[in-house]
Amino acid sequence: MKKKLPIIVFIAAIILCACGKKQEDNSLNFPKTTWEMGMDEVMSAWGGRKESRYQAF
């Protein structure tokens, strides 16, 4: 029984850690856009103009 106890505790710890809370998706998500879109598609979705695309802030 002494040899089985650490194995049981280890398996229980792995199972409890696997049942943890899901992490929130922290990636950038902008309305009307997807990650597959190119720069021109994003600018047209947002209604941007080509002239204002490269302005310095």
How does this model look, in words?
- By secondary structure, the protein is an all-alpha fold.
- 40% of the residues lie in helices and 0% in strands.
- It has helices spanning 4-18, 39-46.
- It is rod-shaped, with a radius of gyration of 25 Å.
Would you count the extended β strands for me?
A: 0
Order of helices and strands: HH
Low-confidence stretches: none
Structural class by SSE content: mainly alpha
Oligomer: single chain
Shape: rod-shaped
**What integer is the average pLDDT?**
77
Rg value: 25 Å
Instruction: Quote the distance from N terminus to C terminus.
Output: 69 Å
Largest sheet, strands/sense/barrel? none
Proportion in helices: 40-55%
As a percent range, the share of strand residues is under 5%
- Put simply, the count of helices is 2
